[in-house]
Design goal:
Layout lengths: L5 H9 L5 H19 L2 E4 L1 H16 L11 E5 L26 H8 L3 E6 L11 E2 L3 E2 L15 H8 L6 E5 L5 H7 L2 E4 L26 E6 L2 H11 L26 E4 L10 H16 L3 E4 L6 H17 L4 H12 L8 H9 L3 H21 L5 E5 L17 E4 L2 E4 L8 H6 L3 E8 L5 E7 L5 H15 L10
Parallel strand pairs: 2-3, 2-6, 9-10, 9-11
Antiparallel strand pairs: 1-3, 4-5, 6-8, 7-8, 7-14, 11-15, 12-13, 14-15
Helix pairs in contact: 2-3, 5-6, 7-14, 9-11, 9-12, 10-11
């Protein structure tokens, strides 16, 4: 049961094959069994969850009207406030934060009948590709405990891959949903910008109201694209402050069959070199889709990767530096003063972001809007574009200072933060993107790719993910857990 898709679990609950209590107890047993070595779930609310499960069972037995997630136990990334469960954002200053209300996206899940029984680990302020912090320690990848499950939704991905939860809510500004899904062999969806509320996300500090920062989004992780769609149908809605006037209705997928799909393929990029095994598998997926009748072409991009990254990094870095100590800004300002304008190293991009004036930001944002229109025209000719999710499969834990870390790609050392480069195109343009597992590396590690689609056409990405799932196979249980 614990590795079943959420849809199957819900069907079995509705048909009374299992009680909600039995389902919850199965997941709690798995947490007890495997979490000590994986450390994905960092706060449990078992007693209250069991009481809620009993109420849910009584509701089924009384033939009451049920929500689409009725009785489904699930966990939530510790970047979202959850009523009555310690919610820290990975920040020691917030380790005693006990919210009195749910984040808006969490509330939508609860209103649909989900039972939240725990929180999953994140890096400090969700600002790393690895999930570790001074409160809860390090989360390990179920495929290889010496490796990271990714970040910042790393606890989410590790819990899903190890059967401790059937569904998760994450967030993404630099690949934080997609990269952990890629590292752990899962499906993860970064939605179109601002179609799911982030009110109640941390950062900003607990209780603060963030109605959108221009880049980050909330979205689901799951073990199937069908489960992503199930969650998306619940989560997509205006923020509470806008609900009196606005409604959101996403268009249906452009294609019902693989043979109707128009696919662009983008397997590698000189500016953002990718592990050869990842590119090879993406090319294989392209061939699979072509054999299934899809139109598949090598992408002629509407804008260069370097230009995308210039826009993305200058939007992202000031945001990530918000609230940093004054000494950090002073150090980066000195570094920036001596920079060569052509220097596009990760540290140089951070330094530029530290001194960006608002008038410069206005120009960069105008460039972003122009780029969005170019992508819009691009998707007149294609339904989706397939590309790497990150430059490497899951790598070994490395908690050195960020700008001292290296990743080895095709025998060459690369800056650690280059692993976020492929997150940029979808984030900077506000586009939907779905990670889908497509195979294993020579070391037996999961490899995924992202399916990026037109703005607000999230269901086209999910439909394409279903086609790829049919061609490449479903979620695989990590060998150590079989």
């Amino acid at each position: 049961m614990i590795f079943d898709n959420a849809q199957k679990i819900l069907k079995n609950i509705k048909e009374k094959k299992y009680s909600v209590v039995e389902v919850l107890e199965s997941f709690l047993h798995q947490v007890e069994k495997v979490n000590p070595t994986i450390n994905a779930i960092v706060a449990l609310d078992a007693e209250r969850a069991l009481e809620k499960a009993k109420v849910a069972d009584n509701k089924i037995n009384s033939n009451s009207k049920l929500g689409s997630l009725h009785g489904l136990p699930m966990t939530i990334k510790d970047a979202f406030e959850v009523e009555g469960i310690v919610s820290t954002g990975g920040n020691p200053l917030w380790k005693d934060n006990l919210p009195t209300r749910n984040a808006e996206a969490v509330q939508r899940l609860v209103d649909a009948g989900a039972i939240i029984f725990g929180k999953t680990n994140v890096p400090y302020l969700s600002s790393d590709l690895q999930s570790f912090n001074d409160i809860y320690g390090v989360t390990n990848n179920p495929w290889d405990l010496e490796r990271t499950p990714g970040g910042s939704s790393g606890g989410s991905a590790a819990a899903l891959a190890s059967g401790m939860t059937p569904l998760e809510l994450g967030s993404d500004i630099g690949g934080s949903i997609r990269v952990p899904a890629h590292f752990c062999g899962l499906f993860g969806h970064k939605p179109s910008y601002n179609i799911i509320s982030e009110v109640g996300h941390m950062p900003p500090p607990p209780g603060a109201i963030s109605t959108g920062n221009g880049l980050s989004v909330a979205g689901p992780l799951a073990r199937s694209p069908e489960d992503l769609e199930l969650a998306l149908d619940v989560l997509v809605a205006p923020q509470e402050q806008d609900q009196s006037a606005w409604k959101i209705k996403l268009p249906e997928a452009r294609a019902k069959r693989a043979s109707e799909l128009k696919v662009a393929i983008w397997p590698n990029e000189s500016y953002a070199e990718v592990d050869e095994e990842i590119s090879k598998l993406i090319l294989e997926v392209g061939e699979d889709l072509k054999h299934a009748g899809a139109s598949v072409e090598t992408a002629k991009l509407p804008i260069s990767f370097e230009e995308i990254d210039k826009i993305y990094s200058q939007l992202l870095n000031p945001l990530m530096l918000a609230g940093a100590p004054q000494e950090t800004f002073e150090t980066l300002e000195k570094l920036n003063a001596g920079l060569d304008p052509s220097d596009m190293s990760e540290l140089a991009k951070v330094a530029r972001g530290s001194v960006l004036k608002y008038s410069d930001w206005v120009v960069i944002n105008a460039m972003r809007q122009n780029m969005r229109q170019k992508w819009r025209k691009f998707f007149d000719n294609y339904d989706v574009i397939l590309s790497p999710t990150s430059i490497t499969p899951a790598f070994k834990h490395n908690h050195d200072p960020v700008h001292e870390r290296k990743l080895n790609i095709n025998g060459k050392d690369q800056e650690y933060l280059r692993a976020t480069l492929w997150a940029g195109p979808a984030v900077s343009a506000g586009l939907p993107s779905t990670n889908v597992p497509i195979g294993l590396s020579s070391k037996g590690l999961p490899i995924g790719m992202q399916i990026m689609g037109p703005y607000l056409e999230d269901k086209t990405c999910l439909q394409a993910a279903k086609f790829v799932q049919d061609l490449r196979g479903k979620f695989k249980v990590p060998p150590s857990l079989n």
